[in-house]
Write a structure and sequence with these properties.
Elements (H helix, E strand, L loop, with lengths): L3 E5 L6 H8 L5 E2 L12 H8 L6 H8 L1 H4 L7 E2 L5 E2 L2 H4 L17 H12 L7 H15 L8 E7 L3 H10 L4 E6 L2 H14 L3 H14 L3 H5 L1 E6 H6 L1 H12 L11 E2 L2 E2 L9 H4 L7 H4 L8 H10 L1 H6 L7 H11 L8 H10 L3 H4 L3 H20 L15
Parallel strand pairs: 1-5, 1-6, 2-5, 6-7
Antiparallel strand pairs: 3-4, 8-9
Helix pairs in contact: 6-7, 9-10, 10-21, 16-18
Length: 393
Amino acid sequence: PEKVISLFQWGRSGTGLLHSLIDGHTEVSTLPSIYFSEFFDQANWERITTGGWDEIIDRFIATYEVLFDASSSVPVASKSGKFISNIGVQEGMANVGLQKDEVLCVDKALFRQVLGNLMDCFEEIDAFVFFQLIQAAYDRSINDYNEKSLIFYHIHNPDTYAQLNFLRLVPNCNWVLMVREPIQSCESWVTINFLNNDYFDIASRIVTMLFEIDSIVHEKYNSIGVRLEDLKERPRETIPALCGWMGISEQESLYEMTVQGKRWWGDPSSPDFEKDGKDPFGETSIKRKVGSIFSKNDQFILRTLFYPFSVRFGYLDEDLEQFKIDLDAIKPMFDKMFDFEKVIVDRTQADPAEFMQSGPFLYLRSGLLERWKTLNKFGTYPNMIKPLKIARV
């Protein structure tokens, strides 16, 4: 299929859940997990193609060993040139099935044969054509011969280059951004980094969330935001609305978490894994109180900067007068440490003055200030992503 819908991460907002619901749809072709988030990075493409046409299939299989055996420890390329080992295990792909004792796998020999036959129909390929052929070979290797109308690509959280190169190759792509109440989403996303005193990643993730809501991608391409809260609280209204936007039929499989047709139990790293693992629409995550990392003071700054998004997606009632007051109030606060930063300084016994001159500290402030300037000038973020329209029943 030529039509592609890409699923993009925003904080921690349930992309794995949505992917698992889409997985079993007969009209949709999709590869498991987030293995391919950096597939369109140039370094990755060179790694696969460096041996020429005759070696491309074997090099792909060696690069993505985890696709064929989810228990594989062979690392997969991730953001910023990093590699992640044991990603299949981390993503819950090695304990699927009704008894949680099956490992996701694909027959390498069959896949190699099918992909080779498909490639014989082409005189040249680029990264996207090869990606389409991988999808087709994967489907046939797992005995899925249904007619597909679209590819659902969980691009997740790619590097800028990988995302832009993908857009160059697939200019008609459609985008789905999973969203969640922003403070709750952000706090959940930085939890592990906070526990590890990884301040660099915390600063980077906060800035990423603040700038993603009005990304140029969402302005220039067909994009919608889907609230995790709607998916969990109103699945029977939200899923049909999403099907309408995607151009596929509603099927009962959309209400079950599966991967490769097998029962998926959720992300093992989620704090709600044990509570909601059996229920795709369990509400523990969206009912969680914030404050484990961000103090009320921290929340006030972030909530003000997220205000236009929160109003658009129904997380806050509109109050422009109070917003202007809050916007004026937070700017002087940028020069001081957040309370969560004070905790990291105390735990690491860092020098406060040196900490406030560090790269991550200054980077976070530059992001906060840039967002503040936009809000101060326009009163909103122009070209923000729009929410999925859901009919009230």
